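Data card: per-record layout.
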Amino acid sequence: MIAKPRKKAKKVEKVPLIESEAPERLQYGALPWRESKGGLEIMLVSSRETRRWIIPKGWPMSGRSGSAAAVIEAMEEAGLLGVISEKPIGAFHYVKRFSRGEELCRVEVFALRVVRQRESWPEKHERDTRWFPAAEAAVLVSDAELGDLIVEFAGSFRN
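The structure for this 159-residue chain is written out next.
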């Protein structure tokens, strides 16, 4: 049997993505809030590795809405139970660091009115949680866009 010669494959040139062309990875986050005598308070959670102040957030979950994923993350990362908004109140961007590099993420944020914090939760010993006045929380978060979102939320809360 004589082998037929293969057709020469077309050479496909790979074009590197320019950073601005790289797709954003979507995450969902919860902005935990409560009313106190001093006004609106926001709970921040420390990140596991760098200990920066952030909000609970995570990747989409199969079969769950964005708000459902956000409320699950709030329980896992901070032990929070409450009522979450069905629609996002806004979004922010941040750079997620992986062992293989960095990726730009867009976090859609849902307001979570906290009813209570559980005594125990999955990441309790990996993170710190703390309530802050909204203005202070806006300054403490590591992402400027998130800080702006907190200020905007606090402003709409007062009106």
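Known properties of this structure: The beta strands are 25-36, 39-46, 53-54, 57-58, 80-84, 90-98, 101-117, 129-133. The chain is about 20% helix and 40% strand.

See the next section for split statistics.
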